[in-house]
Specification:
The structure is a single chain. With 107 residues, the protein is of the alpha+beta class. It has one domain (3-102). It has three helices and four strands. The chain has a four-stranded mixed β-sheet, covered by helices on one side. Helix 2 packs across helix 3 (90-102). The relative contact order is 0.24.
């Protein structure tokens, strides 16, 4: 990935539902003029049927988390039409997904 062309964004998670979380993609996290704007919103779904589908493909918990992180990256990349990096919020979003998905891998 070419570091020069990386778009810097912030991610802000809405309060999660039982089976999904809406994530706002914030453009211009440090400018221009210090004004942020919401570029788009994506929904990460982790209902039981979604997680069971990943399990049926043989994905363990760590692989499922890698899948979700890559999925999130690719969906946002389509909306931005370029590679990106989160200057904040990615850990929060992945923490929500990790917490909810882990329930299907326990026991």
């Amino acid at each position: 990935m070419n570091q020069i062309n990386l778009k810097q964004i912030k991610l802000k998670a809405d309060p999660p539902f039982h089976n999904s979380v809406d994530v706002a993609v914030i453009d211009f996290p440090d400018g221009p003029d210090g004004k942020e704007r919401q570029r788009c919103k994506v929904t990460a779904e982790f209902a039981e049927c979604d997680v069971r589908q990943l399990q049926s493909r043989g994905l363990d918990f760590d692989s499922a988390m890698a899948y979700y992180e890559d999925w999130l990256y690719q969906v946002i990349k389509v909306h931005l039409a370029q590679d990106w990096e989160a200057v904040s919020g990615l850990e929060e979003v992945m923490g929500i997904i990790r917490e909810r998905v882990s329930a299907y891998y326990e026991g």
